[in-house]
């Protein structure tokens, strides 16, 4: 009896937690995460990211990962393309989309964790 009550309370807590996570992730709906090579434009990219108030994920000597909201996507991509057209680099710059929709990616990952939890809880109750 105690074990069943404990599992029920855990499941209820998880459902509430998942609901809160879903509300939290909605601010990421439609947000893309792009990996932009820095080549010889690291400072200019930093200035661009700051001017658009975008969020950096991480940066290295070779690239920067940045969250780009739907309302700023076209402006950001156009500015990056313009930046590299005007640079002296002979390298072709390839911007990589890491997440097409960050909100959807978070929800998908959360659902996987939720399913894993239920599978574990089910196995523990048998």
Keywords:
disordered N terminus, alpha+beta, 4 helices, Alpha-Beta Plaits, 4-stranded antiparallel β-sheet, 126 residues, 2 domains, 4 strands
Write the layout of secondary structure elements.
Elements: H1 2-25, E1 32-37, H2 42-51, E2 55-59, E3 63-68, H3 70-86, E4 96-99, H4 102-125
Antiparallel strand pairs: 1-3, 1-4, 2-3
Helix pairs in contact: 1-4, 2-3
What would you say about this model in short?
This protein is 60% helix and 17% strand. By secondary structure, the protein is an alpha+beta fold. It has a 4-stranded antiparallel sheet with strand order 2-3-1-4.
CATH fold label of the largest domain: Alpha-Beta Plaits
- Report the biggest beta sheet as strand number plus sense, adding barrel if it closes: 4 strands, antiparallel
What is the class of the largest domain in the CATH system? Alpha Beta
- Spatial sequence of strands, sheet with the most strands: 2-3-1-4
Order of helices and strands: HEHEEHEH
Total number of domains: 2
Q: Helix tally?
A: 4
- Oligomeric state of shown chains: single chain
Q: Whole-Å distance between the termini?
A: 13 Å
* Count of DSSP strands: 4
Architecture per CATH nomenclature, i.e. the level-2 architecture of the largest domain: 2-Layer Sandwich
Strand content bin? 15-25%
Low-confidence stretches: 1-9
Helix content estimate = 55-70%
């Amino acid at each position: 009896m105690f074990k069943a009550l404990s599992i029920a309370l855990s499941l209820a807590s998880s459902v509430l937690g998942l609901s809160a996570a879903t509300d939290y992730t909605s601010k990421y709906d439609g947000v893309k995460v792009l990996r932009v090579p820095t080549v010889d434009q690291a400072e200019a990219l930093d200035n661009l990211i700051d001017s658009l108030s975008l969020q950096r994920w991480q940066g290295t000597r070779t690239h920067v990962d940045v969250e780009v909201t739907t309302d700023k996507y076209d402006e950001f991509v156009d500015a990056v393309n313009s930046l590299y057209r005007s640079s002296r680099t002979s390298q072709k710059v390839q911007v990589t989309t890491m997440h097409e929709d960050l909100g959807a990616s978070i929800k998908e990952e959360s659902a996987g964790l939720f399913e894993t939890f239920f599978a574990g809880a089910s196995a523990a109750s048998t």
